[in-house]
Specification:
4 copies of one chain form a homotetramer. Chain A has 202 residues and is mainly α. Chain A has 2 domains: 1-50, Homeodomain-like (Arc Repressor Mutant, subunit A, Orthogonal Bundle), CATH 1.10.10.60; 56-195, Tetracycline Repressor, domain 2 (Orthogonal Bundle). Chain A is 75% helix and 0% strand. The first copy, chain A, has 10 helices and no strands. In chain A, α2 (32-39) packs across α3 (43-49). The interface between A and B is large, with 59 and 60 residues. Chain A binds a DNA duplex (21 and 21 nucleotides) through α1 and α3. Chains A, B, C, D: Residues 8-68 form the HTH tetR-type domain. Chains A, B, C, D: Residues 31-50 bind DNA.
DNA sequence: CATGAATGAGACTTCATTCAT
DNA sequence: TATGAATGAAGTCTCATTCAT
């Protein structure tokens, strides 16, 4: 039986509240009661919809990461140059941050960068993103568009690392934020990774 | 005040044990007693040398990060091309990981990537590294060796992000490890960031 | 007030399910939702028919115990020797177990042997059984069929204790079960208590 | 290393307090804080000495039950008639109750009669007592002192059931208590089980 | 310096009960 | 009658920190 509409709403309410609370206080530092309070629901209702505090974070991560993986897959099916593929991926991640910075903060800080806890749990999912990015690089190398002295795996890590670090810069207020900066970032990440920082003499 | 020799030893014993425990279990998941057990010292002795569990991690981070900052400063004083400076910095970080992967794992996972807790506490120190790297880029741009359409701050983040992500790859076993790989990584990071992934037509 | 037929059915359904759940998991360890699930009724319906979880057990006990008390009363009105009266009572209890071991398990484990909770609540009912058994012994002593150096109260406890312990043996799989064993048990209990374990010379 | 004296004292303090609390409120109904309060120690100290609330009860039971098993073994080694052996065993249990009625109440109510929880856990230990009693009966039958139409297992259950039910009678105030009653009980139990309730015609 | 027993606040989780539909 | 979402009190257990020796 499909969940009733009302039920879905409360469940969503709790998930959305959890994003705000996790972003503000961190997963380990917040209490389940903080989430309940933020969602304005009774304490016990959180446990009606989720087996544990962990499951809330798992749900948030998997929901969002699945969308990312689909987006990367979608990008790779297009017939566009590899640089544009990477631009589209970076763009998707940047836009995700622009659209919901708290959610992206939670996913990065509490999952993808948390090597000991959730990061390890969701490693297969996370790795899948790297694999798909590496596949794009691999094809670009076969087509002799990308140089082949950098292994695809390695290139994928560098690319993804640069993207995540830029988001981290925004999260930590180490880089200026704003619509202009978000658009620029997409270009700059790709310019840096694909074109390189060094001037090419004409 | 000079500490006695024996005292220094026990203190060091605890710090080294903490590295192993934090690396294995994570800061939040381990107990102070785990550290004491690992160090084979009495529980209470941990509190003789450190005010709190937090202070242990703070100490580990600050010790090591200070060395990194000094290394970057040292690199920047040399009269070598910017690419070589970045190579030296990447090399220093990679060698740090090779020399003590557990310590580097702790610093990355528990501090530099932990936006909500220690990451925020030590933000000034962390930022300092970015600033120094950005300064290198800035000078390279003024000397017209690096292109100037990528802001130095941004370039610094991309570079540091790539390095840290490679270490993360090793930590998570997403990238192969070994002496050869460590050496290659230094070159590949710099090739990617400075030279770019795209082939340059001759 | 006459309950509608459907209503009675659901109520019975819940009681029967509760027997199985209590027998399997124990009263304290099971949840009301376990009972509802076992009965295949909605959670809330349990509270439509019963004020509380306690009331379900109370109902089960009182229903069954009342039948036992009536049976003992009925036995005592017959004009048969005391040994046959005790045989009839032991037989009734053994047959109750044979007919519905789960219900008897619940009554013994959760009520008659639970000194702190339900046992205390239903003490008057439980005591009534002892009183009626003691009365049988008392009459037998007056008729000089039973020896009178064992007080009737005491004899009643010994008799009932032996019966309950045999049931406990079956519940715990400490004694073999089966139709033959059930029949034998009736005789053996009475032989032991009335005849004694010692051989009588002569 | 042996526990220090102070440590043993606090541990004992907690165990003794637990007996009083379990006897008064029942295992399921009491809180760990009740035990700590009763022992006048800090809440956490309970968990310093015991892994869980369960472990406290386990400890109490195993300590005492071991003593009972040893006593039965000891009795069986003596060269005395079986009736005297059973008298000694009943006497040991009755004296245990006289000496520490709260502890015996806890053991009977919360363990030996709790089929679903601790009773099941400690079944092997409990069964051991029945086995040893049955062995005494078995030998008495071989020596043609006891009749052999009642199986030893069965006789053991009847005997132990009678003893436990008498204790239950005291616990529930269904039987009068007092030094006289305790002494009488020993004799009456054995008279009932060995001699039988029926008068033997001379 | 060294020990580890002692403290107690605080977290997660459970679940009986209520209630709106 | 029937449903199951919603409530929140209460309990177990953890563990950082303190302290007496």
């Amino acid at each position: 039986m499909a969940r009733t509409q009302a039920a879905v709403d409360k469940r969503r309410l709790i998930l959305d509240a959890a994003v705000r609370v996790f972003a503000r206080q961190g997963f380990h530092t917040c209490r389940v009661s903080d989430i309940a309070d933020e969602a304005r629901v009774a304490y016990g209702l959180v446990y009606h919809y989720f087996k544990s505090k962990d499951e809330i974070l798992d749900t948030l991560f998997l929901e969002r990461w699945d969308i990312l993986l689909r987006a990367i897959t979608e990008v790779d099916t297009q017939e566009i140059p590899p640089r544009e593929k990477l631009y589209a991926i970076a763009g998707f991640i940047v836009d995700s941050y622009r659209h919901d910075p708290e959610l992206m903060k939670v996913i990065i800080v509490e999952v993808t960068r948390a090597a000991n806890t959730f990061g390890r749990t969701h490693l297969p999912q996370i790795r899948q993103a790297y694999i798909q990015i590496a596949a794009i690089v691999d094809r670009a190398q076969r087509e002799r568009i990308f140089r082949n002295d950098v292994t695809p795996d390695f290139a994928a890590m560098a690319f993804y690392g640069a993207v995540e670090q830029v988001l981290t810069g925004w999260i930590f207020s180490l880089l200026p934020v704003g619509d202009r900066e978000y658009e620029d970032a997409k270009t700059l990440i790709v310019e840096t990774i694909c074109g390189g920082l060094e001037r090419v003499e004409g």
